[in-house]
Amino acid sequence: MIYMDNAATTPVHPKVLEAMMPYFNVRYANPSGNYEFARKIRKDVENARSIIAGTLGARPEEIYFTSGGTEGDNWAVKAAAFDRGHGHIISTNVEHKAMLNTLEWIESQGFEKDLAEADGSGIVAPDKIRRLIKNDTFMVSVMAANNEIGTIMPLKDIARSNNLRKRGIIFHTDAVQAYGHIYLNVNDLGVDMLSASAHKFRGPKGAGFIYIRRDTIETSLIHGGSQEMGMRAGTENVASIIGMAKAAQICMETINERRMKETQLRNYMIDRILRTFKGTVLNGTLDNRLPNNINIYFPGINGYSLVSALDRFGVCASAGSACSSASSKPSHVLKAIGLTDQQARSCVRFTLCEDTTAQDVDYLIETLYKIIKV
Ligand code: PLP
Predict the structure, then answer these.
(1) In this predicted model, what pLDDT tens digit does every residue of 44-80 receive, in sequence order?
(2) For a pocket test of ligand 1, which of 92, 177, 209 has the largest count of ligand atoms closer than 8 A to its C-beta?
(3) Is the Cα dihedral 155, 231, 243, 148 positive or negative?
(4) End-to-end CA distance of the chain, in Å?
(5) Closest to 200 in 3D by CA, of 185, 214, 181, 218
(6) Which CATH number fits domain 2-9+255-372: 2.60.40.1930, 2.40.50.140, 3.90.1150.10, 3.90.600.10?
(7) Is this structure's pTM higher than 0.85?
(8) How far apart are CA 119 and CA 125, in angstroms?
């Protein structure tokens, strides 16, 4: 099998699995317990929080553990909205459904939203946000990198040139696809909230975190015990928290090496596809792109059929994002960057990892050649 769907999920790193194992049946105490066995686990959980904070230039008390990216996005928007009670949110038309559907719901509750439009590369320019800011805008949310076309957004420029902090506007980013793949520093970027998901960076599924700058929000979404500084109740998912911190640590240790290797292979693969298959086009931009993302328009070919055919040859790829690939609707991201419905249905995403080899890429090209028969 050749797995080229790492934006959908990644395998748990062997060292992550090893780090997690004791927390199931050896170091299993509830970290809230009042005895030494539990205090040791509390220390491990807090150490995990510090590790994650360190990767972002944040303080440990600004990191809250969640169940993943969807929860982080929901928390950011709903908490900011409930804190204010009314007003206006700005986001973009290329966000993940975790953000778009949350915004739609919040709109149904009487809030207002506007979506800034991405350009043909998937970039939302700072002035597109500026034009939408109103007196009662309380949040701007822009993803750090797009899950379908890998475009990296100019977060720093959006924050600075729009004076978001001075205006008292909370700046949130969905960094689910970016975290662990590119450097992110919350102070440098000027973001107040950032959501991430462990399974996208070789941690376990169903775990994530949100960075919330001190004094940014007051509203908790999950009520109950006093876990997560009283902001997110429920016994901690200890094994996954430990695993996520280990995965974060490994990511930071290997980020440069992986980035170089993946970028080189990505460019090789893009070059081979574009040269071999007539009329193919790379969606997004080569310059501001995640190192492992390739999204190709294959004229006259149905993306879902191509993914099924590749599957028969043992290649895992994706038409649209994993969350929407079962739906027959053309991707809203591809449409947002200017593709027609029909063109958007003719695209396939390949997302590589550090273990992908040039031989894998060559096999993919041969397989595509057999299927497409140009
Ligand atoms: N945001 C983006 C950009 C994503 O790509 C995803 C998942 O693919 C999510 C949010 C949802 O994350 P999770 O699966 O952890 O809920």
Answers:
(1) 999 999 999 999 999 999 999 999 999 999 999 999 9
(2) 177
(3) negative
(4) 24
(5) 181
(6) 3.90.1150.10
(7) yes
(8) 8
